[in-house]
Design brief:
single chain; Rossmann fold; Dihydrodipicolinate Reductase, domain 2; Alpha-Beta Plaits; 3 domains; 11-stranded mixed β-sheet; 6-stranded parallel β-sheet; 17 strands
Length: 438
């Protein structure tokens, strides 16, 4: 049978890993796919440098990516360049040329996936994106196919390895955020400019994709609530541990009667939960279905060959259905395109959850009474409260509270009022709390 020929855009960490896996495991991949999957051409910025690393002459290396996407000898295009502008143009060019596309580009899928999938549907080709979320974890396939029988209720995930490494260092080593970030950069987990990771943007791209798959809604990255970990302190990490919780950067999307929650932020998770014990740069994703209950997916969320594992899995899937009727393929977003839902994304003020509050205050009589009165006026009840003496012995204390469930807009009102108390000596720290119970 005629082999399926692959063109690769970019031979960096992801593209290079894909080429390596395709060549090393060629026989095993062919046994699974039913025919050979052969890389024939790759586009890179620096041809000479790439040729030094990839010496197999059967793969042509060029510097013009448009030659790859328009090449009649290429059946599937692997987009491993990253970025948005050029990558988007190339993917649309590949679709227009009647080629299937496999991509790991989470930002592009999260922001432009709806229009990309519509173009692919019209042209009768597939855009596969397993590697866009969770690196080597096959979470897209699990939600889109394995959990088809379920009405998905919620997804919660540690989906950024950089921030998980930083928070692990802050907990285990007592490191400050700055020191933990520096170590992450030294180890190659964090970029020189770590903003996308530490401010939650990378995780929000991934969560947007998961939410669309779970609930059959269009990609709506612009409506996600996004907070990062750069404002977390060692004190918060330590207090959380003392209360039986661990802090993780959590991506949370949940179906409610009022709409879909779509939010990324630090969260306290009970230490007894499996996901709370996912440390270092690893990723983990919980999916709650009405029939199956809670399922957990764990593994490397990034890296050359873990990500290549997902890309090659997509190549095998596309190869298997290469000649199938486009109307009988698995839909891009799990649901038939004409049946996507118009359920709204909830504004953050309408989200209901529990909260950890830390109030830096003077150790004076009546402070607690004032704080509890403000919370009561906002309709917020306290589940637990501890008072931590300042290590400096300067008459200051940290008042730490855990609340019962309440609306975010009510906790916002209470925090604003508490912040005006004369005894407060700093900003109120607020971290959401998720029990993630089955």
């Amino acid at each position: 049978m005629k082999p399926v020929r692959v063109g690769i855009l970019g031979l960096g960490t992801v593209g290079g890993g894909t080429l390596t896996v395709l060549q090393r495991n060629a026989a095993e991949i062919a046994r699974r796919a039913g025919r050979n999957i052969v890389p024939v051409v790759a586009a890179v910025r620096d041809v000479a440098r790439a040729r030094e690393k990839f010496t197999d002459a059967s793969v042509r290396i060029i510097d013009d990516p448009f030659v790859v996407v328009r090449n009649p000898d290429v059946d599937i295009v692997v987009e491993a360049m990253g970025g948005e502008t050029l990558a988007r143009e190339l993917i649309f060019a590949a679709i227009a040329a009647g080629k299937h596309v496999v991509t790991a580009n989470k930002a592009l899928v999260a922001k432009h996936g709806t229009e990309i999938f519509a173009a692919a549907q019209q042209k009768g080709v597939t855009v596969a994106f397993e590697a866009a979320v969770g690196g080597g974890i096959p979470i897209i396939k699990a939600i889109r196919e394995g959990l088809t029988a379920n009405r998905i209720e919620w997804i919660a995930g540690i989906i950024n390895g950089t921030t998980n490494f930083i928070l692990t260092q802050m907990r285990d080593q007592g490191a400050s955020f700055a020191d933990a970030l520096q170590l992450a950069q030294e180890k190659g987990y964090a970029e020189a400019d770590p903003t996308f990771d530490v401010e939650g943007i990378d995780a929000a791209h991934k969560l947007t994709i998961l939410s669309a798959l779970a609930f059959g809604i269009p990609m709506q990255f612009d409506k996600a609530h996004i907070e990062g970990v750069s404002q977390l302190t060692r004190d918060d990490v330590r207090y959380a541990e003392q209360l039986g919780y661990r802090i993780k950067l959590l991506g949370m999307t949940r179906r409610t009667s009022a709409g879909i929650e779509l939010r990324v932020h630090p969260a306290l998770i009970p230490a007894k939960r499996l996901i709370a014990n996912v440390d270092g740069s690893m990723n983990a994703i919980l999916v709650k279905g009405d029939a199956v209950g809670v399922t957990l997916y764990y593994g490397a969320g990034a890296g050359s060959e873990p990500t290549a594992s997902s890309i090659v899995a997509d190549l095998v899937d596309v190869t298997r259905m290469h000649t199938a009727d486009p109307h009988h393929r698995v839909p891009h977003l799990a649901f038939q395109p004409e049946n996507l839902s118009a359920e709204p994304i909830l504004p953050m003020g309408e989200v209901r959850t529990r909260y950890y509050l830390r109030l830096p205050a003077k150790d004076e009589t009546g402070v607690l009474a004032e704080v509890t009165r403000i919370l009561a006026d906002a309709g917020i009840s306290i589940e637990a409260m501890v008072q931590q003496e300042s290590a400096a012995g300067n008459g200051l204390v940290d008042i730490v509270m855990l609340t019962h469930q309440c609306l975010e807009k009510h906790i916002d009102t209470a925090i604003a009022a508490i912040g005006c108390l004369p005894a407060l000596v700093g900003d109120v720290a607020r971290i959401r709390l998720e029990s993630l119970a089955g």
